[in-house]
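Suppose a colleague, Dr. K., hands you the sequence of a protein chain of 523 amino acids and asks what its three-dimensional shape might be. Before reaching for any lab equipment, you can write down a predicted structure in token form. Begin with the sequence itself:
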Amino acid sequence: MARRPFTGALLALALMSAGAEAATFRYAYRVDPANLDPYALAETFTLSWLGQVYEPLVGRGKNLELVPALATKWEQPSPEVWRFTLRPGVTFHGGEPFTADDVVFSLKRAKMDGSDMAYTIGSVTEIRKVDDLTVELVMEKPNPILPVQITSTYIMSKSWAEKNGAEKPSSIKAKVENFATNNENGTGSFRIETRQPGVKIVLKPFAGHWAKPEHNLTEVVFTPIQSDATRVAALLSGEVDMIYPIPQQDLDRIKGSGKVEVLQGAELRTMFINMDQKRDELVESNVKGKNPFRDVRVRKAIYQAIDMVAIRDRIMGGTSRNAGEMVAPGINGYDKTLDERLPLDVEASRALLAEAGYPSGFEVGMDCSNDRYVNDEKICLAIVGMLGRVGIKVKLTAQTRAKFFEKVLSRNTSMAMLGWQPLSYDSHSTLQDVMNTPEGKVGTYNVGNYSNPKVDELTGKVETEIDPAKRQALISEAFTIHRADIGHIPLHQAGLAWGVRKGVSVVLRSDDSLELKWVRTAP
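The predicted structure, expressed as tokens, is then:
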């Protein structure tokens, strides 16, 4: 487990003296945080944004290495117990002191029904307070990777939540809201000053934060701008200091502006297609009395009908990386020997469909977001056209991410495109959360209900195995079985592209997370 998932880089875009005058930093992303409750939705952007105002026990540094956050030390007094020593003198934005009671409350809340973060502590059976600054997490079996699993599991104030009726988590999937949905009280380096959902959020540095500031900001203004053209125009006009992502078609124009630096890198999120393999009859199909996706020949036919080279070159501007495996290079457990796509073969696809009993194809619905992933709707439209060539007529439903997640996480879908970036940067997350048979707190994002008992068994062993070589063998075996099953269809990892005004320095990490605590800007 000594292997680090990915090495990012500190990209300084201007030389600035330590005494430079502090300033306002304005930036834009495609969408707003989906919810201010840190357990409402396990979405990468929402969690990374909330990481400015909330903090976990164990954090990530500039190179994605583990660093102390609200815990200064973590150790295993026994194989089934992780002990966390908490940071003294920490206060919440509301002035409440941070203690072990807040940790116990928060982690129990994160395990409740409705929480989308329960999987991060799924192995934990008991959360106990040792003293005001010590907490122990107990498991039935050893879990050597627990610290990397909880780097986005944020801690809330127990007294604040109880005072405001937010003892239970709000939930996007279950359409449950409470005070924490639209209000925050974290320990992070920034606090929310004002918020107009969907319009603007103003943040201020938290004067009581425990760490010495590395940033020089006095104010941050975040604006969600869904339109690519409007977002780019705001950057080039100086209305904002940074945007992400940059549309691929605008990269050269922005680079040539002389006003902006473009930061590029490789993303750790893998995009893939889910197919409902559980129902006896699909909810959105003209095939009655049976489910075509239960036949591996149909799943393989869909795989071989999708031209990922065309998607990469024509839609992604050549910046994406086609994937044959469900995890990206840089994720612990990645196996290069498995990262090879099945060949594009339209004739073979038609033959497989005919062999499976669908010589004329069939009709099916597909769900897609239109504001969550890079070029998400365009990719789905391209796939619709490609499947049409082999006789599969797809009715596409492209929606905003809030409606999309509400639908697919309730598994009211026949086929859907999703992306997954393990918060732990470890393959176990993909195995447990995307590929494991949905049951209890596991398989949460396995919206197609793929199920193989051997994969489930291997997933459990991966979590507890401490020998790196044996653990890698288990991961590779699970991915090999899943590949043969075509449990999902891996697509690609998109390229990262941020546009930053000259005079501003930020840290580009492969998790696509902007950390305000490291931003420095000239006035």
